[in-house]
């Protein structure tokens, strides 16, 4: 067996074990009996130990030294293994274990502090999490920028400087668009009524099928938080139902189908290999977002959804145009995950700037709530009322996810680029969407992007799919046009 | 950290990983998308590799040499670790891997041969499985009896000679009782009609609760084959529904609840330790069988079930006495898993004798079908009609489970002993059972037996619980009395 083959066999087993661990996480959120939580913690910790040992196996270094790639794909496999191995090796085992231990505690304290609106109970442990992640960032940065070193885990090759420039261009135009829309004379109505959860779930299954989700290699269950889990031939999603807000269920489902089909559509030849998954968080989010927003919230598809809903629930009290407005309605709010297409990125930009300051050492945890609230007032025009509507709303920092937030907006930017290329390449997608079929669009995404898995770095992948370097312009132009029409601007 | 503590920490992680692997098996039978089967095979194989490496970790030997037990429980922990470690070390890694590989192939070939009634397609691979297991038995026996060495994996301390004596006493009395019952003038009626699966499942949840199943630490799902999976705080069961045969669902559920509550009721102080599970297959089966038969199929409980069913399904066309007869009705049949309380053990005894001859080398795989059919005719009085009703009916031998079958009948014998002791210790159990509550009985089983996990060897455990060495007499006396009454013998 060549060194390359030995390395790939090792990585294949590692990938299989990562699937096992992921399935355990899925089970925890969907099936696990309540009383099993503590035991499950030990099971997860034992699996983490197994995975860590595999990822730091010193033979990986030997194999990498000796391996001779036979082609471009093999070269990319080695690039990916080396990237992951070098990152893992740079962090001392004791530090990695301490981060795992402290973030696990912090997650519980965060949940309690949020429920009790008691930020002071959370700040000490957050301070510890931040200190540990800053230490890790120093190890990873190897003399470079510590924040970039964290960001690189989620978005290989991205830098805060590039993102800052892109986000800087987004912010004023998003604020201006939001202000014009909320101040417009014409305001869309909201959907009224309550909608049977069983019917919502039935429609959400139709939506998943409409967007190309392969039920033979996946399943949909209910969970508190919608998510997608697994890769290859076993990619499961969850959704939730809120009786008075069926869009929550429907657009969560389409969003997760975007993540899930990306995983399902990776070339089977790459399955369980280092390149066998979506390439980055930003590209992943570009898929979930283009499915959810550009395709799912477009007038063509909401026209079909309007009919499907009236079939299930009777008269909705609005025609297809009104329904399109209701789906896309902008409104004031504190919560990122509930924000509309325009304001969502403003929530992300706030977090990006704050976490860079935290990692850079120019903002202390003790001053964070004040900084958050000041920035929120500036960007949104009204004050945060409670900590759970402010800096306590997201779990990310509690579990150490610094450098993750910007990938949400980067995903939206990529989605803008991809949508422009898609509409040029497949001009008749609206005709299919209007009949409840998104697959001409999702087939193009599969063939242009999803099938490559991790073969090309994120920016190169977007360039290959769109023929251009990614910029924020297509997203902004799309948003301006869409909301100008809805609000009569 | 002492050697004992280090060993226990290692075993605890091993037990946690075994839980993960078991949950993966549960998922495969209940939740897994159809298209994920091949990928799942790789995931399971990777987990097997992880578990095998842990079980053969050479440090276990060092720790065992150095460990000093502080008390009786610690001594029992070490006994159990040594037992498992010595067994594992005696089998060369290559042989263990080959057995895993070949039995995996054999299972598929068995299923196909059974479906096609084509035994010739299965015999070559069965021959290979048998040869490998005979080789393994030689390694394990260390000069002793090879069959005993295999049996010891499922029933520590049991020997074929002891079982043979016990089973020899059972056989003529079971045959005689069966012949008298089937020849009796009075024959119970059968239940007629079809019964909504959803209602069956609702009743089966009541049954699980009636027998003390802790839903907070478990769940019930549907699967092709009923089973119990997991230990400690996450013990799940499955059941199935057959529209015209609700007893299939109900008694499968009670049976699996017997297995599951045994696991749930082990002393939490033993959780995830080498003693933290049921001690043997025979004792496990004693629990499932006493729940299902002595308690669940007794007149007191079927009286309650009769009322519960009439509440759900309307008039059943029989009174409580007739219903009791219908639940316990003897009938001709080829299939072990469908057999009644009296004839079930005859099916097992046939397999026990045949597999001893196979392992002992006095029966060749090529002659097995003939031997099976001749013995079946002798014990049951009519000829096997098709291979799937004969020696192809069970998966056990295909997957290498030689030495497992006798634990089914041993479990019934133990159940007989326990039931005699239980009725003496808790004289009023029938009053509770008649009101749909088995917990005074199951509480006694928990306190007398289940809570000890693996602390005492099987026979000693039964002796402690019953005050007597186990014999077949209580089971036979119970069956004679029960069926004499039902059939008016």
Automatic annotation (TrEMBL), chains A, B:
Broad specificity carboxypetidase that releases amino acids sequentially from the C-terminus, including neutral, aromatic, polar and basic residues. Signal peptide: none annotated. It catalyses: Release of a C-terminal amino acid with broad specificity, except for -Pro. Keywords: Carboxypeptidase, Hydrolase, Metal-binding, Metalloprotease, Protease, Zinc. Its EC number is 3.4.17.19. Zn(2+) binds at residues 255, 259, 285. It comes from Palleronia pontilimi. This is Metal-dependent carboxypeptidase. It is an enzyme of class 3 (hydrolase). Coiled coil: none annotated. One of its GO terms (biological process) is proteolysis.
């Amino acid at each position: 067996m060549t060194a390359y083959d030995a390395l790939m066999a090792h990585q294949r087993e590692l990938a299989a074990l990562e699937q096992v661990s992921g399935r355990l996480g899925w089970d925890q959120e969907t099936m696990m009996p309540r009383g099993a939580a503590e035991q499950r913690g030990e099971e997860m910790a034992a699996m983490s130990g197994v995975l860590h040992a595999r990822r730091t196996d010193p033979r990986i270094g030997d194999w990498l030294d000796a391996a001779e790639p036979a082609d471009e794909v093999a070269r990319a496999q080695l690039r990916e293994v080396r990237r992951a191995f070098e990152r893992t090796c740079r962090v001392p085992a004791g530090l990695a274990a301490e981060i795992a231990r402290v973030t696990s505690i912090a997650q519980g304290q965060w949940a309690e502090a949020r429920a009790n609106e008691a930020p002071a109970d959370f700040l000490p442990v957050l301070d510890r999490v931040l200190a540990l992640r800053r230490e890790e960032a120093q190890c990873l940065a190897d003399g470079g920028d510590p924040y970039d070193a964290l960001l690189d885990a989620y978005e290989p090759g991205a830098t805060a400087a590039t993102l800052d420039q892109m986000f800087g261009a987004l912010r004023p135009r998003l604020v201006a668009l939001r202000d014009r829309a909320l101040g417009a004379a014409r305001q869309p109505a909201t959907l009224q009524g309550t909608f049977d959860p069983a019917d919502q779930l039935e429609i959400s299954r139709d939506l998943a099928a409409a967007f190309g989700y392969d039920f033979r290699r996946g399943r949909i269950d209910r969970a508190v938080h919608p998510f997608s889990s697994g890769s290859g031939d076993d990619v499961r999603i969850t959704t939730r139902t809120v009786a008075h807000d069926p869009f929550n269920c429907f657009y969560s489902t389409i969003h997760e189908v975007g993540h899930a089909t990306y995983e399902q559509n990776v070339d089977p030849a790459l399955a369980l290999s280092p390149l066998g998954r979506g390439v980055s968080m930003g590209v992943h989010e570009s898929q979930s977002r283009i499915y959810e927003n550009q395709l799912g919230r477009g007038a063509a598809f909401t026209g079909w959804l309007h009919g499907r809903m009236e079939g299930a629930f009777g008269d909705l009290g609005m025609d297809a145009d009104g329904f399109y407005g209701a789906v896309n309605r902008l409104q004031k709010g504190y919560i990122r995950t509930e924000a509309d297409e325009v304001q969502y990125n403003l929530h992300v930009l706030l977090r990006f700037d704050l976490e860079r300051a935290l990692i850079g050492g120019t903002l202390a945890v003790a001053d964070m709530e004040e900084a958050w609230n000041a920035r929120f007032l500036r960007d949104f025009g009204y004050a945060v009322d409670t900590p759970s509507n402010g800096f306590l709303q997201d779990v990310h920092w509690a579990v150490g996810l610094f450098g993750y937030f910007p990938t949400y907006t980067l995903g939206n930017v990529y989605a803008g680029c991809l949508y422009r290329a898609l509409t040029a390449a497949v001009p008749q997608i609206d005709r299919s969407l209007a009949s409840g079929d998104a697959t001409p669009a999702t087939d193009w995404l599969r063939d242009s992007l999803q099938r490559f898995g991790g073969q090309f770095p994120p920016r190169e992948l977007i360039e290959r799919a769109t023929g251009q370097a990614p910029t924020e312009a297509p997203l902004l132009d799309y948003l301006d046009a869409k909301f100008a029409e809805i609000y009569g601007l």
